[in-house]
């Protein structure tokens, strides 16, 4: 099937009508033919012809609800597989997913992007994916595509990292073509936060919380079409979704908010500037401040933890706050405030309906989110925050692999490709 991706247009109008029907079912299914009719305005006979064809090529399946009501149509989620890869500075996770981006199985391990060559890291991707395929009894021919998120700016069209600040050897390394040679399937590369945003759009907070199970948009009033996803960890970045689509900017650098300057702060950043958001509010900065606080005798909890050989992590600071340590509480609130002040500027500029926070700093807990919220509300215009929701991601570390799978599915199930997948070999 996958050989038919790309290239010239399909005959008939499969590429538009079939693609349109398939997309509605992907987004909102399971749906009855009448549901599809209401949303497309297409005649019953037309819908029935296209649906029959989509069923016969195996992209859709029928579901007969209990009580013998009318058949409902949904994506044939087991008709193929996609691989989603989340690559972090120190960890890699590879997941085998079905055609609805549900994780079937996943595997992961340590990686050091600052030291290891792209070839070495991508070899790990290949071997993890092979292991998952073997375990699930899935052959390469059933793979519809592979998606990978990189913690760096990405030129989406070329599938390469561009000027990654702390990944020597990765600048313009041909990630997509390297992996597509190994897997002989389409490979898509994007920035990790953009990919997290796709996961939130379809499966997370911005999707109205109902995943794809709802019967229609009107049944999911919580669904958000314009929102931000912020990844706050060692680095800080944002994914921007406008009307349901990722906004990448003209060079793929949109949302690179980690190096926005904080007025009056001179902390040196790894990019060479000083006072950058991630140098002030990232998890390294937080750990350094917490360590200083314990050295200076301001936190009995942290001093004791360091004494016991524990590393200072966001989770440890959250534990300290829960145990009533004032300094841990102060650190959490201060981190949220710095991030919130920057997000307030974005809110005034972009007017999102939701901000979803993900990344290592979410381990600081609800107090961190509350502090972000307070800063944003205080510094944004009332109209911009009227219906604004700020919350922690419910997907957390699964967002990277689920989003990478969705990236692939959005591409291979684009209107044109669905049309091509429906062609008879003799056409
Ligand atoms: Zn910087």
Report what the structure shows.
This protein is of the alpha/beta class and 427 residues long. The chain has three domains: 2-76, Orthogonal Bundle (Arc Repressor Mutant, subunit A); 81-204 and 400-411, ATPase, nucleotide binding domain (Nucleotidyltransferase, domain 5), CATH 3.30.420; 218-394, ATPase, nucleotide binding domain (Nucleotidyltransferase, domain 5, 2-Layer Sandwich). Helix content is 41%, strand content 17%. It has 15 helices and 14 strands. It has helices at residues 14-28, 33-40, 44-56, 118-136, 175-183, 192-203, 277-281, 283-295, 300-307, 314-322, 326-350, 366-379, 382-385, 399-412, 415-421; strands at 60-63, 72-75, 81-87, 91-97, 103-110, 143-150, 154-155, 160-161, 187-191, 227-232, 236-242, 245-246, 354-358, 389-392. Strands 5-4-3-6-9 form a five-stranded mixed β-sheet, sandwiched between helices. The relative contact order is 0.14. The structure holds zinc ion. The site of zinc ion has 6 residues, from loops.
Count of DSSP strands: 14
Mean of all residue-level pLDDT scores: 88
N-to-C order of helices and strands? HHHEEEEEHEEEHEHEEEHHHHHEHHEHH
Radius of gyration: 23 Å
Principal-axis shape: globular
- Strand arrangement across the biggest beta sheet: 5-4-3-6-9
What's the CATH architecture name of the largest domain? Answer: 2-Layer Sandwich
């Amino acid at each position: 099937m996958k050989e038919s991706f790309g290239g010239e247009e399909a005959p008939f109008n499969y590429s538009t009508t079939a693609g349109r029907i398939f997309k509605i079912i992907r987004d909102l299914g399971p749906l009855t033919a009448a549901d599809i009719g209401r949303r497309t305005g297409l005649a019953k006979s037309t819908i029935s012809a296209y649906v029959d064809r989509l069923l016969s090529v195996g992209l859709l399946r029928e579901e007969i609800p209990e009580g013998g009501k009318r058949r409902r149509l949904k994506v044939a989620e087991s008709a193929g597989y996609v691989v989603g890869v989340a690559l972090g500075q120190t960890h890699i996770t590879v997941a085998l997913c079905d055609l609805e981006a549900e994780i079937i199985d996943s595997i992961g391990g340590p990686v050091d992007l600052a030291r290891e060559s792209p070839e070495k890291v991508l070899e790990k991707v290949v071997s993890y994916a092979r292991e998952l395929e073997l375990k699930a009894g899935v052959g390469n021919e059933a793979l519809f595509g592979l998606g990978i998120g990189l913690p760096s700016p990405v030129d989406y069209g070329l599938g390469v990292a561009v000027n990654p600040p702390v990944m020597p050897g990765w600048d313009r390394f041909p990630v997509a073509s390297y992996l597509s040679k190994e897997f002989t399937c389409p490979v898509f590369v994007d920035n990790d936060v953009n990919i997290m945003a796709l996961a939130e759009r379809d499966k997370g907070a911005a999707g109205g919380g109902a995943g794809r199970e709802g019967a229609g948009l009107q049944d999911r009033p919580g669904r958000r079409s314009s929102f931000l996803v912020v990844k706050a960890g060692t680095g800080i970045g944002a994914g921007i979704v406008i009307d349901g689509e990722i906004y990448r900017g003209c060079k793929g650098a949109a949302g690179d908010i980690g190096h926005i300057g904080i007025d009056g702060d001179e902390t040196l950043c790894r990019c060479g500037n000083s006072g950058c958001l991630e140098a002030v509010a990232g998890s390294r900065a937080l750990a350094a401040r917490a360590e200083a606080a314990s050295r200076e005798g301001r936190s009995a909890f942290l001093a004791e933890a360091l004494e016991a050989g524990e590393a200072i992590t966001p989770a440890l600071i959250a534990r300290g706050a829960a145990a009533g340590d004032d300094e841990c509480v102060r650190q959490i609130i201060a981190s949220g405030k710095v991030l919130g002040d920057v997000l307030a500027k974005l809110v005034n500029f972009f007017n999102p309906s939701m901000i979803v926070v993900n990344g290592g700093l979410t381990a600081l807990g609800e107090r961190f989110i509350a502090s972000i919220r307070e800063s944003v509300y205080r510094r944004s215009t009332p109209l911009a925050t009227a219906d604004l929701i700020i919350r922690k991601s419910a997907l957390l570390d699964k967002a990277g692999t689920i989003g990478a799978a969705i990236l692939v599915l959005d591409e291979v199930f684009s209107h044109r490709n669905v049309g091509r997948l429906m062609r008879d070999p003799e056409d």
